[in-house]
């Protein structure tokens, strides 16, 4: 009996279909590519180019203004009334206004002593200072430790109060709001706020309070953050570069031109009357600090940023902690923009150009466009144009404009100029998380009000590094599987594929960037971003 082949059991029509399946897919692709895919992708390119130009002109404007500010603007103590407050022989310390210091905490085992100690060391008359530790900790051991630390300072004569709540309603905003309701706060004129890892210098209040005391239209004095662990690893150096631009340029320009900027949530002193007039703390977004600042500004209050008044703080040193922080910082502003844009438009107390600045520059370009253009253009649209011939991407949009933007962004941290190229690749990785968070905020999706407190390690890194038998960096007990991040690895695979395709068939040599960006996404996807120590 003749042997029966497998093909003889399959009808001829199906055999033809199987053989020609690849050809049919190719035919369908050719049919839809020219009339559908190419126009859509070209439209995406034009939209991305428009957003790039918006960001480019914003950065150039900020660069020009900051140069003018540094060269010609008067210093804050010359633009506003300022003189030191000192004791009077007749009235004693009554010349000093009563200041409340709030320190919100949540399970801050590693840093609670640092912030409490720094606050208790402020150079201000003891009878004119109230320190309020707002402890929302859920760990009973940590709560007991914090309470004992407060009692220790109270025994030394410091007016410090340990405050707890039954629930964490409203998170940080809820704690700050509850703290202002206490009867002993009624005599306080100003409130200084420090997160648990912030350590103000003793002269902080003596330098900041005179601006508020002598200028009744000023609501907020914001100090600059100084990072004690910037050299810990490559992750912290990248954060330093981003935040230094924010403080050196964005905050300085906002303060000098419109007396407005976003309150950074800590290292600032508020006039309590301004907080109350603006409606107090609200927990409708994860950026209660920015929410309060915008509402106070709409009521005519002015803000001052002091770049030379610096407060020590800590940067997240694990990629997980940094991702959660960036989700909150990206989702919150987008959600606040959605909630307040019409309120800003209808407001009659601020001038037109300030409205334009707040809506367009502060919110739309910096908080929305900046995140989306970085991810969509350089990680999605540009790689796709390699796979779809016929889509035109001008060299000025793909290379020249991003180069200028990057150079302008680097002015805040000249010591890290040699890390600039890797900073670009790292920011592209983070733009994926920021874009996702921004869309969640704009559309009020599921994680819109997610609040995860940023992990702080305090002196644990330094102590272990100084130990004779200890490693330079602490070992984090994460299983390898727990460190894997699927989204980063997926984007890495996509970029690697497009890079290979461009290497074999492309003409623009994008593959160099694509391979390097794929490597960076892979490092992040494997959880190794926070383990690389940079060259100094």
Automatic annotation (TrEMBL):
Protein topology in the membrane: Multi-pass membrane protein
Record-linked SUPFAM superfamilies: Nucleotide-diphospho-sugar transferases
Glycosyltransferase 2-like domain ranges (all copies): 190-385
Subcellular location(s) of the protein: Golgi apparatus membrane
InterPro entries, alphabetized: Glyco_trans_2-like, Nucleotide-diphossugar_trans
Pfam families: Glyco_trans_2_3
GO biological process, one term: cell wall organization
Entry annotated with the keyword RNA-binding: no
Group of enzyme by EC: transferase
GO cellular component, one term: Golgi membrane
Keyword Transmembrane helix appears in the UniProt entry: yes
UniProt main location, coarse: Golgi
Catalytic activity annotation: GDP-mannose + (glucomannan)n = GDP + (glucomannan)n+1
The protein's Enzyme Commission number: 2.4.1.32
GO molecular function terms attached to this record: glucomannan 4-beta-mannosyltransferase activity; mannan synthase activity
Transmembrane regions: 43-69, 368-393, 399-426, 510-533
CDD domains on file: CESA_CaSu_A2
Keywords: Cell wall biogenesis/degradation, Glycosyltransferase, Golgi apparatus, Membrane, Transferase, Transmembrane, Transmembrane helix
Family in the record: Belongs to the glycosyltransferase 2 family. Plant cellulose synthase-like A subfamily.
Annotated protein name in UniProt: glucomannan 4-beta-mannosyltransferase
Originating organism: Kalanchoe fedtschenkoi (Lavender scallops)
Upper lineage: Eukaryota, Viridiplantae, Streptophyta, Embryophyta, Tracheophyta
């Amino acid at each position: 009996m003749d042997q029966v082949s497998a093909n003889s059991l399959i009808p001829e029509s199906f055999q033809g279909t199987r053989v020609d399946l690849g050809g049919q897919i190719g035919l369908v692709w050719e049919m839809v590519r020219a009339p559908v895919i190419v126009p859509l992708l070209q439209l995406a390119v034009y939209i991305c180019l428009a957003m790039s130009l918006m960001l480019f002109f914003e950065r150039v404007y900020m660069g020009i203004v900051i140069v003018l500010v540094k060269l010609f603007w008067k210093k804050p103590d010359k633009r506003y009334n300022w003189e030191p407050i000192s004791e009077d022989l007749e009235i004693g310390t009554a010349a000093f206004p009563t200041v409340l210091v709030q320190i919100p905490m949540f399970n801050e085992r590693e840093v609670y002593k640092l912030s409490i100690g720094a606050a208790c060391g402020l150079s201000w008359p003891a009878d004119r200072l109230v320190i309020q530790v707002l402890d929302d900790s859920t760990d009973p051991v940590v709560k007991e430790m914090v309470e004992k630390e407060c009692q220790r300072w109270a025994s030394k004569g410091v007016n410090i109060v340990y405050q707890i709540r039954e629930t964490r309603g409203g998170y940080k905003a809820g704690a700050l709001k509850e703290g202002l309701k206490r009867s002993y706060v009624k005599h306080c004129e100003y409130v200084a706020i420090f997160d648990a890892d912030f350590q103000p210098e003793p002269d902080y209040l003596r330098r900041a309070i005179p601006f508020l005391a002598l200028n009744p239209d000023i609501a907020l004095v914001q100090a600059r953050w100084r990072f004690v662990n910037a050299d810990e690893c490559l992750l912290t150096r990248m954060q330093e570069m981003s935040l230094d631009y924010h403080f050196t340029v964005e905050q300085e320009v906002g303060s000098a031109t419109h007396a407005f900027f976003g309150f950074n949530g800590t290292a600032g002193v508020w006039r309590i009357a301004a907080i109350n007039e603006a409606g107090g703390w609200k927990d409708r977004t994860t950026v209660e600090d920015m929410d309060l600042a915008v509402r106070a500004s709409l009521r005519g209050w002015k803000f001052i940023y002091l770049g030379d008044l610096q407060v020590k703080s800590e940067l997240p040193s694990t990629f997980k902690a940094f991702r959660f922080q960036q989700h909150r910082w990206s989702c919150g502003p987008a959600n606040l923009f959605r909630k307040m844009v019409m309120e800003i438009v209808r407001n009659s107390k601020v001038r037109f150009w300030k409205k334009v600045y707040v809506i367009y520059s502060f919110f739309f370009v910096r908080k929305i466009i900046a995140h989306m253009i970085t991810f969509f253009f350089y990680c999605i649209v540009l790689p796709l144009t390699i796979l779809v011939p016929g889509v035109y991407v001008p060299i000025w949009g793909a290379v020249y404009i991003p180069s200028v933007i990057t150079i302008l962004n680097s002015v805040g941290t000249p010591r890290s100029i040699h890390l600039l190229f890797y900073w670009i690749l790292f920011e592209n990785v983070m733009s994926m998380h920021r874009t996702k968070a921004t869309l969640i905020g704009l559309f009020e999706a599921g994680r819109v009000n997610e609040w995860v407190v940023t992990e702080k390690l305090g002196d644990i890194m330094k102590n272990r590094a100084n130990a004779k038998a200890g490693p330079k960096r602490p070992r984090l007990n994460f299983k390898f599987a727990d460190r894997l991040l699927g989204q980063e690895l997926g984007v890495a695979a996509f970029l690697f594929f497009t890079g290979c395709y461009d290497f074999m068939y492309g003409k623009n040599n994008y593959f160099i960037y694509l391979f390097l960006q794929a490597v960076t996404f892979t490092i992040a996807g494997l959880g190794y971003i926070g383990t690389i120590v940079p060259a100094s």
